[in-house]
Amino acid sequence: MPTTWKTYPLEFKGGLVSNLSPLQHGMQLPNSARVLSNFEPSVQGGFRRIEGFQKFDDNQVPPYGEPKVSTTVSSGGSSIVLGNMFSSPSVGDTFTVAGNAQVYTVSSVNTTDLTANKRVTVGFTPNLVADATDQVAVTFVTGSGDIEGVASFEDTVIVARGGNLFRSAGSASNWTRINIPVYGTVLVNGGSQSGTTLAIDALTAAPQAGDTFTIANVAKVYTVTADATVSSGGSTININPALASAPADNAVVTFLSSDRSLMSKHRFSTFNFNGTETLVGVDEINKPFTFDGSVFNSMDNAPSDVIGATHVTNFKNHIMFAKGSNIVYTALFSSDDFTAASGAGSINVGDIITGIVVFREQLIIFSERRIQRLVGSSEADFQLQPITMDIGCVAPDTIQEIGGDILFLGPDGIRSLSATDKIGDFGLAVTSKQIQDEVTNFVNRNTSFSSLVIREKSQYRIFGFNRSITATSAQGLLATQLQESLAWGELRGIRAFVADSNYNGTSELIVFAHTDGYVYKMEDGNSFDGSNIISTFATPFFPISDPRIRKSFYKMFLFTDPQGSFNSNFSLKYDFADPAVIQPATKTISNTSIASVQAIYGNVQFAHGGLVNNGSDYSSGVTTIAVDNLSTSNLIAGDTFIIAGQGTGSGASFTHTVFTLSSTPSITSSAGNFTFSPATPSSLNDNTKLAFKTVNSVGSSTYGGESLKSIFEEQTTGSGFTASLQFGSESTDAPYSLDAVTLEYAEHTHS
Of 113, 142, 171, which marks where a domain is finished? Predict the structure, then answer.
């Protein structure tokens, strides 16, 4: 027969663990998790369901830039030449043409003239319903192509897609292209010109091969076919196609786009050499660029060992570019001066560079098989020193600084690089040993990686990307810095090819993107862009005192901190979920209605409750009521509560009104008067239940004076030698924390 009931309390902490056998896990780390998906170990304690993400801008990033019709096509036509194109559309894409009230579908694509002259010829259906006038805008409604880069810059986001760079302030502000060359107010220099050259003047800089432009009152979109030289503000540029007609003298030449074709993954950094915050970017193929919020500048004077740079950062007021095994740096306080006489230079590190980061006044240089550091402040005293020649970084976009350490993906897991107390020394350790199975699976399933930090949570997130894996199955890992250790969890459903985070003023902007053309803002909302967040937390199978003794479980007390509506599935699993053992049915824990779950304090779901008590009913619009049957006297102004039946809507759409105590009530013998706001929206019956959502002070309560949140009591059934608790939700509810649990059980005597 079972003996006296006992209690087994657990405070949830420690994160995900997978490197222990099931029995070891339950005995050594019962507070941790064997499953922790879309829950994060919180710096406030417990495991918190993660927040969602929403579109940063409601509009797609244009897939092919800002194409224009290049030569008028009459109504009824089914083929069109598009200029200012930097990547190819695909059959099935849809587009509109300014002046045409019709959406057209691409039926064929000819890209013969794309690479050299930024033009494509597309066939489409149905036929044109009106003339497609020369140089009018073409807008692709749908299109293909990855977002190759994303950067949080000041109060906006910069993205790269389809050979172009765009900027948005979010919401419905739409994307504005920024890769527009600034060469001055350019004019045609002389009339009666023809052929494939064009004399122009009023230049402030030299046009470059691949730039596109139009000429006032001259048909077609033109492409510069060779880098130009400027003398006294004038130049004769080589163009394609040949001039459709002779331009007038001083006709305006409007440059559309600078050449950024065939872009690959972008990486960014910022600098401020002249009082203006400036973004610098590289993309593995093209010339680097800068953007100061208004002016885009392609580094046309960049040397060959900088064109196609893979990484960039600002170190000691030099811009550092990485390409292959070389670090190339600019002159002091310059973004584009590469002359040795000015203090620019280069350093060969002896191995292919996979990342660079500034860390504690040093430039840390990661390669595939080694890690080195650059110390000093200029060409005069730069020194390259080894940190390790045995371990490197295998995934360039996984390097982040958090909690005074650098995390990165190494060949054997996620490692940390930390400065030690010994001057000039570094510690190097695998930080992901507790989840090594998850890391191995994560690396094997994905083909590329990205990462970011959420600074206000002291959290590192790394995302895997694989084109064959759907968004629902997309995988990531997170680690929260808790004092001296990292606590891990798993992410599911966040498909990130590129990602970034940064403080814009006082708020942290966290963004990511993949292949669908949208940029998403993380830590925003209670859904994955409208879809349910699927989350699961399971404890290890704990044997409690002895794995040889069977235990019967009778009650569970769950301590939670919900931020709104709370609905969670709950189940007990016995004996490592052995199918031969009877497993109790899954139950639902909810705070969406007052009496749905019994709580510890009063016959209500929240921490403290009571009943309306004045011997009669109240009309609507009251702000003071008498209450008795209270479970606590430790109530103060600012505490919040709900009352059964008081709210808006009906049925499934009913929402409780949340009332706030206007003053601290005087409570005697579990009764007192409440003054609150807002006024009650409907009439109120005597003995109606009420429940407190938040209680700011509970004095010397049983639970140590902490603010008690929602505490649920749930009956449990069944028995086993080991037991595991499992919680989960699939909803768009607000985040909630699972903080602790107490189980009531009895041990069976040995046979």
Answer: 142
